[in-house]
Amino acid sequence: PDYRSYAAPPPRGLLPVGVITYTQLFSAAELGALERETDRTDVLARAGLLPPDCQHSTYGKGGGGAEGEGSLKRTKLFFGARYLWTREQLASPNARVAGGVRVDVPPPLRWMRQLAESPLVGCGVIPRGFVDSVALNLYHDGSEGIQSHYDDAARFRRPIYSVRLFSDSRLSFGGSLFGTTNNAFFVPMPRGCVTVLEEASFAANGIKHCVRPVDMAGKSAALILRGIEPEAMRRAKELFVEETCERLQHVLRIVDGPTASE
Ligand code: AKG
Q1: Strands, DSSP E only, in the chain?
Q2: More confident: 1 or 120
Q3: Does 66 score more than 60 pLDDT?
Q4: Is the four-CA dihedral 79, 81, 85, 90 of positive or negative sign?
Q5: Neighbours of 168 (CB within 10 A)
């Protein structure tokens, strides 16, 4: 099914928001496999088998929100490319170079391509060759979401695709207007749903989005499939050094297993 979402805008009539959600594209068995691989990747990350640069975690506020002080709340894992967004990351001298995009992370893992991207290319939802960057957002217990933001058009091509895992949740829009407690509208994202922020849409370009704690019903994850803007990608690759490449190949041999030629 293709559920188009509408928001009631000024001054009259309905404004197409530009979000499409597809449900039931994945079977129960396929969803189970995606979630098992997500959990396995989480275990690898916690065991220190993924490079620090491809991970960003937040912790419960009990001990000040820093690593080791309070429980793990949210982890973002980046494959193919990462982007700088925290105040500390943006304070570094070259933070704005390449639009803040970096390719010093492992490529998308085999399961991300095989279990998520390929079926979506196969049924015509994602164009072949579009995805070069995958982010895995792990909302470990659903008590911390992601703040209101734009997916910066200078970094990310549109459309932007995501697959919802583990439990039903919502994507909320308009937090810039009302803060985090009350937004303009939301789009339901049931477990297994594929959400598309369409090209040149209000949803992608005209309004911020977020996931609030109240938008989740417990443990949740989003596998976000994106294309990086070619110019940002080109500049990011210029920054990339061979030594990093060798280190990342080593990581992949551990995480993905040996390739057919090994
Ligand atoms: C982001 O990581 O930029 C998101 O907006 C993720 C939202 C989601 O969890 O679906």
Answers
A1: 2-7, 15-22, 55-59, 72-79, 82-83, 101-102, 133-139, 146-149, 160-165, 169-173, 185-189, 194-197, 209-211, 220-226
A2: 120
A3: no
A4: positive
A5: 16
Tens digits of residue pLDDT in 133-163: 999 999 999 999 998 899 999 999 999 999 9
Q: Catalytic residue positions?
A: 83
**Which residues surround ligand 1 with Cβ inside 6 Å?**
135, 137, 146, 151, 162, 171, 209, 211, 222, 224
Tokens of 192: 């297994």
State the distance from the centre of ligand 1 to the C-alpha of 125, rounded, in angstroms.
Answer: 19
Residues 97/190, Cβ–Cβ less than 8 Å: no
Complex prediction ipTM: 0.99
Secondary structure class of 84 (helix, strand, coil): coil
Q: Tell me the one-letter amino acid at 210.
A: C
Tokens representing 80?
């193919």
